[in-house]
């Protein structure tokens, strides 16, 4: 049998963590973006962090924006120390145009210009459509699609309309073939791809170019960890990719750098797929869909069996938890800023622990429901400081 040919890996330097690279080889001229300013949403970690680093290594100052100012400030310090360029961390929720407007005003006050917008903020997870809540779908659409439009429009109105500029959206190939477990993210990214073309047409006369980079499996990212990239790699799934490997963050940053720079001065409305050819050849993960659905069904059944053991009137406590959480979300409770970002995750944790405690106590079902309702009321009427110990976000 003929031996498998030795693969040539020409990938650039990169590291898995959100740290700056100790060495970097310039593919483009180091002054390609000299004294330009880039506004990067989701710039504090993952691909966004590496995009900021690579742009700064080519002479660009940056603004990195997301909801976690503490994380952004730490990232900005690393980026400035390594590159010698300015990096301004700003708190932004891309779902709220007023926060974007304030951030752009601060950017213009600090730098006096914005040349590049990178729409990188996103949210994703694996979930079959049958198990996807209305709120979960809406949230992904709000972050990915509405967030991209909100940020683009604010910056266009405040600067690009009169001065021109370059917008690069970070998308995905999920919608190209109807990726299993990804109806939410695939729909959002497909909308963004359409938005790229529409805005390229409408804003072109103002000197604004709008393009998209669609990454494939990229190591060292939260998406890679959350969506099973490491498992796919160890299982040999990447052998179906023409380039036989996952990509890295620097490779995506280089694609963004090209589209953002004068090297792509006549490119607009384009979607640059940077996935090693993965979407062309990789099989859709229908097996994972079936396994996921089976596991979820078994989890729900086990909860209901536990309820039957502990009560003469069985109830799915998990459903009660979800009802409370949905009500809690819609109540728009105002938390201390330090707590606000992690409140939903922590509330889920508290409710899960409460479910276990009630199971051990073997209380009757009406008492259990009353306790859940009382907990919800406490969250509604007690200020955040009184319950700081519950959330323990230090």
TrEMBL record:
Keywords in alphabetical order: Fatty acid metabolism, Lipid metabolism, Membrane, NADP, Oxidoreductase, Peroxisome, Transmembrane, Transmembrane helix
Main location: other
Transmembrane segments: 356-382
GO cellular component: peroxisomal membrane
Keyword Lipid metabolism tagged: yes
A biological-process GO annotation: fatty acid catabolic process
Compartment list: Peroxisome
EC number, UniProt record: 1.3.1.124
InterPro entries, A to Z: DECR2-like, SDR_fam
UniProt catalytic activity: (2E,4Z,7Z,10Z,13Z,16Z,19Z)-docosaheptaenoyl-CoA + NADPH + H(+) = (3E,7Z,10Z,13Z,16Z,19Z)-docosahexaenoyl-CoA + NADP(+); a (2E,4E)-dienoyl-CoA + NADPH + H(+) = a 4,5-saturated-(3E)-enoyl-CoA + NADP(+); a (2E,4Z)-dienoyl-CoA + NADPH + H(+) = a 4,5-saturated-(3E)-enoyl-CoA + NADP(+)
Single GO MF annotation: 2,4-dienoyl-CoA reductase (NADPH) activity
CDD domains linked to this entry: TER_DECR_SDR_a
Top-level taxonomic group: Eukaryota
Family, similarity comment: Belongs to the short-chain dehydrogenases/reductases (SDR) family. 2,4-dienoyl-CoA reductase subfamily.
Subunit note: Monomer, dimer and oligomer.
Protein name (Swiss-Prot/TrEMBL): Peroxisomal 2,4-dienoyl-CoA reductase [(3E)-enoyl-CoA-producing]
Lineage of origin: Eukaryota, Metazoa, Chordata, Craniata, Vertebrata
Gene name linked to the record: decr2
């Amino acid at each position: 049998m003929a031996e498998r040919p030795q693969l040539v890996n020409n990938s650039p330097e990169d590291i898995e963590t959100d740290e700056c690279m100790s060495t970097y080889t310039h593919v483009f001229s180091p002054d390609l973006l000299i004294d330009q300013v880039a506004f990067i949403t989701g710039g504090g970690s993952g691909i966004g962090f590496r995009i900021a680093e690579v742009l700064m290594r080519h002479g660009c100052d940056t603004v990195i924006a997301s909801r976690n100012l503490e994380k952004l400030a730490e990232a900005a310090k690393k980026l400035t120390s390594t590159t010698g360029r300015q990096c301004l961390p700003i708190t932004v929720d891309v779902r709220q145009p007023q926060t974007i407007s304030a951030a752009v005003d601060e950017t213009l006050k600090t730098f006096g210009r914005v040349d590049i917008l990178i729409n990188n903020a996103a949210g994703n997870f694996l979930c079959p459509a049958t198990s996807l809540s209305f709120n979960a779908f809406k949230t992904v659409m709000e972050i990915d699609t509405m967030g991209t439009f909100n940020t683009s429009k604010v910056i266009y109105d405040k600067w690009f309309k009169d001065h021109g500029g370059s917008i690069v959206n970070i998308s995905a190939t999920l919608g190209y073939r109807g990726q299993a477990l990804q109806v939410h993210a695939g729909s959002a990214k497909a909308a963004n791809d359409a938005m790229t073309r529409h805005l390229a047409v409408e804003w072109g006369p103002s000197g604004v170019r709008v393009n998209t980079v669609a990454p494939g499996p990229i190591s060292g990212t939260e998406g890679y960890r959350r969506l099973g990239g490491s498992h796919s790699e160890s299982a040999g799934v990447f052998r179906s990719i023409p380039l036989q490997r996952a990509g890295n963050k620097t490779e995506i940053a280089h694609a963004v750098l090209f589209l953002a720079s004068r090297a792509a001065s006549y490119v607009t409305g384009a979607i640059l797929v940077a996935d090693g050819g993965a979407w062309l050849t990789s099989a859709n993960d229908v097996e994972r869909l079936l396994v996921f659905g089976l596991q979820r069904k078994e989890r729900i059944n086990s909860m209901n069996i536990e309820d039957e053991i502990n009560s003469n009137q069985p109830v799915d406590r998990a459903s009660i938890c979800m009802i409370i959480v949905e009500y809690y979300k819609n109540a728009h409770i105002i938390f201390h800023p330090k707590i606000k970002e992690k409140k939903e995750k922590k509330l889920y944790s508290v409710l899960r622990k409460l479910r276990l405690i009630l199971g051990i106590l073997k209380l009757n079902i009406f008492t259990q429901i009353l306790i859940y309702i009382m907990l919800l009321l406490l969250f509604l009427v007690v200020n955040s400081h009184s319950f700081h110990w519950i959330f323990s976000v230090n």
